[in-house]
Automatic annotation (TrEMBL):
Cited InterPro entries: GntR_C, TF_FadR/GntR_C, Tscrpt_reg_HTH_GntR, WH-like_DNA-bd_sf, WH_DNA-bd_sf
Region (Disordered): 1-22
Protein's name according to its UniProt entry: FCD domain-containing protein
Key words, A-Z: DNA-binding, Transcription, Transcription regulation
Pfam family of the protein (one): GntR
Signal peptide: none
Record domain HTH gntR-type: where: 64-131
Amino acid sequence: MSTLAHTMMTAARSTDSGLAGPGELDRYPFAEGPAADRVGNPVWEGAEPELGRVGRRGAGSRGRGLHGQLVQQLGQMIVAGDLGADRPLVPEEIGQRFEVSRTVVRESLRVLEAKGLVSARPNVGTRVRPVSDWNLLDPDIIEWRAFGPQRDSQRRELSELRWTIEPLAARLAAGHGHEDVQQRLSDMVEIMGHAMGQGDALTYSRADAEFHSLLIQIAGNRMLEHLSGIVSSALQVSGGPVTGCDRPTEASLGHHGRIADALAAGDGAAAEAAMRQLLTVHPEVERVVPAPREH
């Protein structure tokens, strides 16, 4: 239980965003053309539809070898409902079907257990757990749900969660950031502007993710800080017209700039209002969250 609790409170963050530091905009490696479209979930080949070989790296394996690929594929199958609740998972069968060692299977199932997807008990074995037991704040599960049959629900829930987290974080962050952090936020807005002008959606999204992560980290609330990885995951998998961060536009860029200016001025109300405006750029969001209140 302690492992699961730790996982739920810990948001995965990239240790190297690849973004320029303050004063390094001239050396920022913009792409020459638009970023390639995201590669979809892998299609598994095999005699049975539920199991296949670990032959190709899935989008979420993140270079973790066979262990990461097995976690990715089993996780996607569970989240997609291909392996339903209370379905037994026999390690020997998994090892044979995926052509991996017992060690790889054992470690992969431990990772899935920490995420709440499976449970292992003596005399019962390893079984798939119901959705109510899943760690829905885990970045991998967020990704698997966002690109599976539950994509619409996942993106709506992420949007609602962002509306709970980010306006409050913007208000709390006003005047709290050191000068170097304020400069970093301004740099991210400038990078986003350059990237939008060059049609570089990948660079734009990376700068956007760092902007929001920094804002939450300087809010001065450690519990909110643990949720910054969830916001980053939401930005990575949004994929639809839900918030103003989903596609580069002049409007969303302007809202980011106003947020940065309000934070630098220590105006919490203005920062919160600008964040609410950013999250309501697209009218479709009104079906999900209430309209921003006047301050």
